[in-house]
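Section 3.1: Structural characterization of target chains.
Under the original work plan, the team committed to producing a structural model for every single-chain target entering the pipeline before any wet-lab resources were allocated. The record below documents one such target. The sequence was received from the expression subgroup and is listed exactly as submitted; it comprises 359 residues.
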Amino acid sequence: MKIGARILKTGIAIVLALGLAQLLKFPSPAFAGIAAIFAIQPTIYRSYRTVIEQLQGNIIGAAIAIGFVLIFGNNVFYVGLASVIVIIINVKMKTENTISLAIVTVIAIMENQNGDFLDFAFVRFFTVMLGIFSAFVVNFLFLPPKYETKLYYQISNLSEEIYKWIRISTSHVSEPFHIKSEIQATKEQLIKVEQLYLMYKEDRELFKKASLAKSRKLVVYRQMMVTTRKALNILVKLNKYENQFHHMPEEFQNTIREQIEYLITQHQQIQLKYIRKIKASYEFTSDQGITHKELLSLFLSIQKEVKDENEQDIYHMMALTSAIIEYEEHIEHLGTLISSFQSFHKDDDELVIETTNED
């Protein structure tokens, strides 16, 4: 079993919250540990936002709890009623994420107690807030998430999987049903990559220069995902029209295989260029492959060779040809974006070679 950074950070946050609560001699340090569990977030920005939202939610919860105890007492019925009111207020304010911890605050404050109630209530409130701030400190200082590195390698690994199945499909040795299940798995993985992209996007940079660089990186990564999706589209077409493809004239099949192989190689090299494993002077060129015009001419020429009863196959090959042209256009655009980025940020070495942090 692999223990991710978020698991470790949750443990560290609990230890820190409990330790600080004991050091400050708070009577119920467990509430600080509970609050730390709720406050751990996958990104630093989310952690910061959680502190603000939980502070707001806990102030509401504490205020209602104190008001109920002073007016009605701490009967269990009023604890439930106060919790319902807290939920309603948070829903109205669209801060549903704070509901759980706000209710914990209500219960902590309305618990049976002796002595000065207001002192007790404020101590419980600050105990909960101590847990939230402990989680924020841990999230900020310990094992900060490296979403850029994860994002690049997940896109790269996913692309390699697609290349592999494209090559198998064009060689006519594939099992269509098996490839169909691989396509579905790849689509699901792409959704996860897009979610990772959103996490990377929402994290904020502290300095203006880094923020500008990240804005350009976001454009590059978005194009990487789009280009990978276009490669997947070719695999889908090859799988769907495998029989029709292998009934086409030999020249057409060979040319399509060579063009796809050429584009895959270009795609690989451009992505390696981004992490500076290939010279920055490398540029995408279609000189080695055939042009769009030549590919269209080849497609049009096979219409004369295909029998009338197989005319439907021509429309399927048109879809495949169109997907290949679209893939090439996106590879070219990706290459342009990466070249532009590296010309503006020649000293950007933030993208490490190995992924060392997993949530």
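The mean pLDDT is 84.
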